[in-house]
Amino acid sequence: MKIKVHVTLKNGVLDPQGKAIGNALAALGFVGVEEVRQGKFIELDIAESDPAKAQAQADEMCRKLLANTVIENYQIDLEG
């Protein structure tokens, strides 16, 4: 089963990399970009075929390694 994990900073957490991207876009002439937030995208392919078990494994992976839950949110998408 393929698992896609999107990790983003929680609202209110400073995002210096997002700010740098926003500044670079402005310097390149892209106007109207008001805010940029950057994150991570992680793709996993696991042997588990049960969606509930795959979801539970992915959630545990996120809590233990893939996301810093103090400052980051994560979203898990399963593909069959």
Question: What can you see in these coordinates?
Answer:
- With 80 residues, this protein is of the alpha+beta class.
- It has one domain (2-79): Phosphoribosylformylglycinamidine synthase subunit PurS (Mth169, Chain: A, 2-Layer Sandwich), CATH 3.30.1280.10.
- It is built from two helices and three strands, in the order E-H-E-H-E.
- It starts with a strand and ends with a strand.
- The mean pLDDT is 97.
Describe the biggest sheet? 3 strands, antiparallel
CATH third-tier fold name:
Mth169, Chain: A
**CA radius of gyration:** 16 Å
Low-confidence residue ranges = none
CATH class wording? Alpha Beta
Give the second-level CATH assignment, the architecture: 2-Layer Sandwich
Round the mean pLDDT to the nearest integer and report it. 97
With strands numbered from the N-terminus, the spatial order across the biggest sheet is: 2-1-3
**Euclidean distance between termini CA atoms:** 5 Å
Helix content: 25-40%
Task: Tell me, briefly, the overall form.
Answer: elongated
Number of domains: 1
Helix/strand class: alpha+beta
Short synopsis of the structure:
This protein has 80 residues and is of the alpha+beta class. It has two helices and three strands, in the order E-H-E-H-E. It starts with a strand and ends with a strand.
SSE diagram, text form:
Elements: E1 2-9, H1 16-27, E2 39-45, H2 51-66, E3 72-79
What descriptive keywords fit this protein?
about 80 residues; alpha+beta; Mth169, Chain: A; 3-stranded antiparallel β-sheet; 2 helices; about 30% strand
